[in-house]
């Protein structure tokens, strides 16, 4: 059982109990957040694809921590000119734990038992022969 959910414009494939690392969010540690931007759900028997999202489906996550990645070094150099620049960057992230996947409620569709209506054939066009 899994879902594909959108968080900050990026798509993540999640299952219950998963921990995912997303770009830094403004949520507090320990809070539970309900995400309703679910694009696809699969419960093992059938797959439901949203247009663009699945109505009634949601994913509940718990915020575990806010942290920063390891430092990424950027080094620029132009040969024979004495130009050297060293810079670093640490990207922030939020660690989430998926607690619950709420699937959309399925409704049974009633079939129309009305008699079939045959389409009338269009009159034949006279050719210009």
Automatic annotation (TrEMBL):
Alphabetized InterPro entries for the sequence: bL21-like (IPR028909), bL21-like_sf (IPR036164), Ribosomal_bL21 (IPR001787), Ribosomal_bL21_CS (IPR018258)
Keyword Cell division: no
GO biological process, alphabetically ordered: translation
Region of interest: Disordered: 104-129
Gene Ontology terms for molecular function: rRNA binding; structural constituent of ribosome
Keyword Signal: no
Keywords: Ribonucleoprotein, Ribosomal protein, RNA-binding, rRNA-binding
PROSITE patterns reported in the protein's UniProt record: RIBOSOMAL_L21 (PS01169)
Any one of the GO CC terms: ribosome
Biased composition (Polar residues): 104-116
Basic and acidic residues bias: start-end ranges: 117-129
Protein family (similarity comment): Belongs to the bacterial ribosomal protein bL21 family.
Protein name: LSU ribosomal protein L21p
